[in-house]
Write a structure and sequence with these properties.
106 residues; mainly alpha; 434 Repressor (Amino-terminal Domain); 5 helices; extended
Length: 106
Amino acid sequence: MNCPDTNPDDFELVHGSGNVYRDFAVPDADLRQAKAIVAARIVQILDEEGLSTRQAAARTGVPQADFSRIRNVRLERFTIDRLMTALNKLGRQVTVQVSLGPMEAA
């Protein structure tokens, strides 16, 4: 979609860090990114397997409201381990990789 009043030369392309939360200086950026990645995988599994939030709850024992919150990206109430437990109960193994190095500037 082209806007008639804008010139492509008026914009500067800025490459992100790969973590949108860090790019916008959000507190706990790495934790929020990790939670978002795990939640996205949960939603992907529900979609791939055609599971409603109620069906997922019945299958896993995780409350239906939790799956609803995850699907709606309301992750404030979740710890990373709680999200990982939901993934486990969906029959997925979780592997965590930690890289140590200097923090990149935002």
